[in-house]
Write a structure and sequence with these properties.
Radius of gyration: 24 Å
Structural class: alpha+beta
Oligomer: single chain
Mean pLDDT: 80
Strand content: 15-25%
Helix content: 40-55%
Number of domains: 3
Low-confidence stretches: 86-90, 120-128, 307-311
Order of helices and strands: HEEHHHEEEEHHHEHEEHEEHEE
């Protein structure tokens, strides 16, 4: 790096609103920018050379992440870290990231949350709780009746009709299993977590959504077949993806409507939700977008802009993602809405 480059880098770090801390392999602070001085409540002269652990509550909260970044030689992200009594601000909520640079670790600290709209895990999960028994009671009888009718259709001589009936039975059985769990615990509960082929899971969900959606909707699939297996309850994970697909299809039912689903390995965004969940499923549509007045509450139960909607689909997606140690977030504007679902991989 030239002298001019070094000067430019130094000026940029000093101007940054994000607190930047360079830490050596011995966890001693080597450099802090002006924003970090403000956040830590200590001068640069006092901080440089001091141990990160002994440099205040924010620095101490970052120390375990620095150790992990050094031990595993990879970036470590965390968000919604609450630090008390930091600079007289009780309950300061922060995002802290630690990235190894070959010699030590660069730590960035900023207010959280940032970025696109994400489900507030605990709030959305708490709001969704309690609906289980009611929904289970209302669902079981119509599910049984529909399954009986589908069993008769399976016997049809028409191959296409029989295949469609088999799909209906499979979906009804899965819905019944989920309803049984609601009945037992009053809320969604995870079944056994097992390795799940994400490609196959998403393909099944797309098949079901395609059958349920309007014929005017076009579908695109972009799958990464090299992804590792997800660690998931297959029924609930599939239900999450299906809810997102159906929502997207309903948003673009007119001519020219397009839904695109993609699987990929995620490089977690600093400050983003569920940084340890590296498997990503995105569902994108070219519909009118989520109304601005609903965006902050879109993952809460009974919040919907659909005339005939119940407002439970996204609340269930949020709850299921939370149970898996994953997350869900979205970005929306007229003509483009993208939901991102994150799951953990098998390690």
């Amino acid at each position: 790096m030239s002298v001019s480059d070094e000067v430019a880098a130094a000026r940029a770090s000093e101007a940054a609103r994000v607190g930047l801390i360079l830490v050596g392999a011995d966890l001693k602070i080597e450099y802090v920018n002006a924003a970090a001085e403000t956040l830590l409540g200590r001068s640069r002269r006092r901080l440089c050379g001091a141990s990160l652990v002994d440099s205040g509550p924010i620095a101490a909260a970052a120390a375990p992440m620095v150790r992990r970044a050094l031990d595993e030689d990879r970036e470590v992200f965390a968000h919604d870290i609450v630090v008390n009594d930091a600079h007289d601000a009780v309950g300061l909520r922060l995002a802290i990231d630690a990235a190894p640079d070959g010699v030590g670790v660069c730590v960035s600290v900023r207010a959280s949350p940032e970025g696109v709209s994400a489900a507030r895990g605990s709030a959305a999960a708490t709001a969704a709780a309690g609906f289980g028994r009611m929904l289970s009671h209302e669902l079981k009888n119509p599910l049984a009746g529909a399954r009986g009718a589908a069993q008769l259709m399976v016997q049809s001589q028409d191959r296409e009709t029989a295949e469609l009936a088999a799909l209906i039975i499979r979906e009804l059985d899965r819905a019944r299993r989920i309803a049984d769990r609601w009945s037992q615990v009053g809320d969604i509960a995870l079944g056994p977590l097992q390795p799940v082929n994400l490609h196959a899971l998403v393909r099944e969900a797309v098949e079901s959504a395609r059958v349920a959606g309007a014929p005017t909707v076009s579908w695109e699939e972009h799958f990464d077949p090299s992804l590792p297996d997800a660690l998931a309850d297959a029924d609930l994970a599939r239900q999450s993806v299906l809810n997102l697909l159906i929502n997207a299809a309903e948003a673009v039912e007119g001519e020219g409507g397009l839904v695109s689903v993609t699987t990929r390995y995620r490089r977690a965004r600093p400050g983003g939700p569920a940084p340890e969940a590296r498997l990503e499923i995105t569902v994108e549509d070219n519909g009118p977008g989520v109304p601005a007045e609903l965006q902050d509450a879109i993952f809460n139960p009974f919040v919907t802009h659909k005339p005939a909607g119940e407002g439970l689909g996204l609340a269930l997606v949020s709850r299921i993602a939370d149970l898996h140690g994953g997350g869900v977030e979205f970005e929306s504007r007229p003509g483009r809405t993208v939901f991102h679902l994150y799951l953990r991989e098998v390690r």
